[in-house]
Design brief:
Order of helices and strands: HHHHHHHEEHH
Shape: globular
Structural class: mainly alpha
Radius of gyration: 17 Å
Number of strands: 2
Helix content: over 70%
Strand content: under 5%
Distance between the termini: 15 Å
Length: 200
Amino acid sequence: MSAAEQHEQLLKQMAWLDTLTAGLALPADERALMVLGCIDVATEHQAAIALLYKTELYGSAFALLRVLMESVVCGMWLRRCATDSQVAKFKKGDIGRKFGEFIADLEPTLGTTTLFSSLKNRAWTAMNGFTHTGFHQVSRRHSPGKVQPNYSEEDILNLLLTTNMLGAIAYGEVIDMSKNKTIIAEYNAKILMFSGRVQP
């Protein structure tokens, strides 16, 4: 699949998930509102990456991937793992947890998946480089005789695939919070198609 095709698939998935979650009845206690705030930030980052790809602002798109992942993990951790004391600390901006600790807490609540730890182990150094203007970002600003964006098709495809996956997870958390069995079943059935694991 080309980056352009993956971008089109990303847009279709975003539109479908936005429609699917519109009007869902969701909890509104303090913890839930913080979780939903994190997830809303995540879906905004996802939409921004899609828009930045379209306008060929690839460096900025790559810079957002780390914060997209952090938003998803933080929201899920607050919902599934955080104690009341940790929620209170989060409100004060002093959670005292490293990102790897969030993941270590979170993954046991998700069954057997190691998706987040695998992604962190494989790509975290690069994500940091892109976000903080490190070597991964700077080295892709050169073409022969020019300083300009020079991102490979493979790099961009991986960016869009990861954005697609993280966005689907974010929306899935909202859908799970709704406890709407019909919507949950529709999400579970169709998300496989949009992720590319099942052909339409």
